[in-house]
Design goal:
Strand order of the largest sheet: 2-1-3-4-5
CATH architecture of the largest domain: 3-Layer(aba) Sandwich
Strand content: 5-15%
Shape: elongated
Helix content: 55-70%
Radius of gyration: 26 Å
CATH class of the largest domain: Alpha Beta
Largest sheet: 5 strands, parallel
Length: 354
């Protein structure tokens, strides 16, 4: 059994990796084989194991459980279950919070326990003492100079990561309730606007039926009016621009990750392109399955944003029969973001899965 269990969000892998490399292994002489962490090489779940049973078993038998609590952690159902389970184990539970998470927002279960700030020097010193005591690590194994330098190296590394990838600020209950009220008001306004839009569409269709179509289009062009299909195609062009910079197999990984389609990207013959994409942080290898990294690079953030725009447009026009009729006239593929033919036709890209 591993002596150290690290509960964290997979989205915080860079932070957790630095914590393991610089603090636990690099400074406190904790063996990698004594650490259970679901995202870091050498500490992952053994291939073929049921991940739920593996997590439960290691959590129950750990001597120390670290909770790396970030905004991503608070959004994860699995993480919150681990937080609750850690409360009833016999392990030393050490919640480590990362701003914008504060003592008041860490969670009611953890409030009675000692909560530390992950990037606080003195807090890390206390973590060192607790790990050394709990795991019976001889004092000679921990060199003071090395501990100090690695501690600062860890803090700087994580702060730089957060600066490049800032967390979204959590909302207070009052702010949330206020937004819910505003949402209800906007929904009422939206229903009114939809009704008015439908009336205008009917009027516009009748106008087109009675007037010269060429003249109608000229008028629309003059006033800068674009129809829904033109808006859709402009959004697809933006996706095409953002995706064509990648090889077809990388687009396949992007397709699988974004749509969460139950397909396998085998990548046979694409090893060089996949390794290149991993090295540039476009994708990462998650237990022998390639996954798109939406956060690290500007290229992937831009691609993800443009794909989201298309998806939002499709969802917003779900009841727009005029748009669907126009789409069917121009395209063969189903109007569905999870459909591979749609990606290849609407985005004009080659998507390879093997």
């Amino acid at each position: 059994m591993r002596q150290v269990f690290i509960s964290h969000s997979s989205k915080d892998e860079p932070i957790v990796k630095a914590f393991i490399d610089d603090i636990l292994v690099g400074s406190l002489a904790v063996k990698v084989s004594d650490i259970f962490c679901t995202t870091t090489d050498g500490t992952k779940i053994v291939s073929g194991d049921d991940w739920r049973n593996s997590i439960q078993e290691h959590l129950a038998n750990a001597k120390i459980t670290f909770l790396i609590i970030t905004s991503f952690y608070k959004e994860s159902e699995v993480c919150l279950n681990e937080m609750g389970a850690a409360w009833v184990t016999s392990a030393k539970v050490i919640p480590l919070i990362v701003e914008p998470i504060k003592y008041s927002t860490v969670g009611i279960i953890q409030q009675p326990k000692q909560v530390e700030k992950l990037l606080d020097e003195k807090a890390l010193d206390r973590v060192k003492d607790l790990v050394q005591e709990t795991l019976d690590i001889p004092a000679k194994e921990i060199k003071s100079d090395r501990w100090t330098s690695k501690k600062y190296e860890f803090i700087i590394k994580v702060e730089q990561h957060i600066e490049r990838n800032p967390f979204i600020l959590p909302l207070s209950r009052e702010e949330f309730d206020s937004l819910i009220k505003d949402k209800k008001k906007l929904e009422i306004t939206l229903r009114t606007l939809i009704s008015d839009k439908q009336e205008l569409e009917k009027m516009n269709e009748e106008l087109k039926a009675t007037k010269d179509k060429k003249a109608v289009k000229e008028i629309e062009k003059k006033f800068g009016k674009t129809n829904d299909l033109e808006e859709f195609e402009a959004l697809c062009k933006e996706v095409e621009k953002n995706l064509t910079r990648f090889d077809g197999i990388i687009i396949g990984v992007i397709y699988k990750t974004f749509t969460q389609k139950d397909v396998i990207v085998r990548g046979n013959g694409w090893e060089r392109q996949l390794e290149n994409a991993v090295s540039r942080d476009y994708i990462y290898d998650n237990d022998e399955e390639y996954v798109a990294d939406w956060e690290t690079t500007k290229e992937m953030r831009t691609a993800y944003a443009s794909l989201n725009e298309v998806e939002r447009f499709i969802n917003a026009n779900e009841t727009n029969s005029s748009f669907y009729e126009s789409y069917d006239e121009e395209y063969e593929a189903p109007l569905k973001m999870s459909n591979l033919d749609f990606w290849e036709e609407a985005f004009n890209v080659n998507v390879y899965l093997e």
